[in-house]
């Protein structure tokens, strides 16, 4: 592998800001990293991409000290000096900051206290002074947060911004961002990308781990593709090419991640919402209002719109997780008003939630248990569950959904995110499901797994299942769905056939609440 020129961001010849040499890490018999090396100059932005389980997170845990020095072979050099990073604290002392994918804030504290977490005291003994300092810092980076606000009342996207602000406040020379835009709106994503550009100009070296190639292409100066614990390709900015990157990630050419739309939805209406208003389960306030929507058998209906527009709440009402405030629902022409997910599943309506870890999976359970949880009652014989039947059913689903797992007895937590998502999809679609509700079905999933999931969803539709897909990804709505509705402030503002729009029109519609046509 060639050595890159050691030139800093301002053009001066000097030491590399970060170098990782021949990093090898194994977990038992599994080699997670097989000699990974990278080199970054001061102010560079590295786009680190690869499938779930490719080794990206393991490599970043080495750099952040979560995998301590001595438990792997190879060297880490910061500004030309070899460092021994034994913990996140020692990494921070060496100038490494990290924003993990999972939000981690203290709900009982204010925004300002969370931003300055671990630094409160000393000159910050005055709460007022602390908040002024925090607010000044937030304003400097144009983050739309109020230092005095309680974190418990904030949206997930705001909590993600707090974590980014906290990492930046430590003034790291190397910043790791692990899927930082997963919970952000389009406007917030644009703001974060601008922050990354600003940090680059200040000399901060950034590693951006992301499945969203458009964001990587927007800010990265270099792309490193990791597959099976090895670097399979490295691209300088002048070489950026989406087909080359996708092929490198997946290990195969993927001409079109979306399955061809060959089936025509049937005339029969499977799910019908009539003037439905959905209540906030905590405060009783209306979130989604006067929703009228029909989904036919074999049809995939996409639901777009900004966060907070009522998209998820509609799915939760259909799945028995949230009460209706008014209106009625029908399933196959009959009144439908489930009071629990169990009742909804029994009637043929299954939900794959956005947060698979906390809301979808039994994280300490096996692949077999997770894949068949909705079928346990049917598999039970004489008041006990047949282990043989569960295993057989799970093995069938693993094969059908191309789930990569050592065995069906493996812990679900040991699988990659894409394979976990396929287990959830297998469970939801394996109970004679009439309606399949998918909330951000490819969130945090690599391009190869996305193609598999799209194919499986399209197959379910071709078999007569009515599918509703909530997604923040305009290309996903256009490429996967037959029909698209846009929500704005809890109401359906626009509706169109997917063939009549492109992703650019749909992105604009999510902000304006109106769907035009390409070229408007």
Shape: globular
Residue ranges: pLDDT <50 for 5 or more in a row? Answer: 5-13
- CATH topology assignment of the largest domain: Rossmann fold
Main β-sheet description? 6 strands, mixed
Order of neighbouring strands in the sheet with most strands = 6-7-8-3-9-10
| Strand composition percent | 15-25%
CATH H-level superfamily title of the largest domain: P-loop containing nucleotide triphosphate hydrolases
Mean of all residue-level pLDDT scores: 82
Count of DSSP-assigned helices: 18
Rg measurement, Å? 24 Å
Known CATH architecture of the largest domain: 3-Layer(aba) Sandwich
Structural class: alpha/beta
Total number of β-strand segments? Answer: 22
Distance between the termini: 48 Å
Helix content: 25-40%
User: Any idea of the CATH class of the largest domain?
Assistant: Alpha Beta
Number of domains: 3
Task: Provide structural commentary.
With 520 residues, the chain is an alpha/beta fold. Helix content is 32%, strand content 25%. The chain has helices spanning 56-63, 88-93, 111-115, 127-140, 156-169, 186-201, 213-219, 242-250, 311-318, 341-347, 356-360, 367-372, 376-379, 387-400, 417-429, 447-462, 474-480, 503-512; strands at residues 18-27, 30-40, 45-49, 73-78, 81-82, 96-99, 174-178, 205-209, 222-227, 230-236, 269-279, 286-296, 300-304, 324-331, 334-335, 349-352, 380-381, 384-385, 435-439, 466-470, 483-488, 491-497. The strands form five sheets. Strands 6-7-8-3-9-10 form a six-stranded mixed sheet, with helices on both faces. Strands 16-19-20-13-21-22 form a six-stranded mixed sheet, with helices on both faces. Helix 15 (417-429) packs parallel to helix 16 (447-462) and helix 17 packs across helix 18.
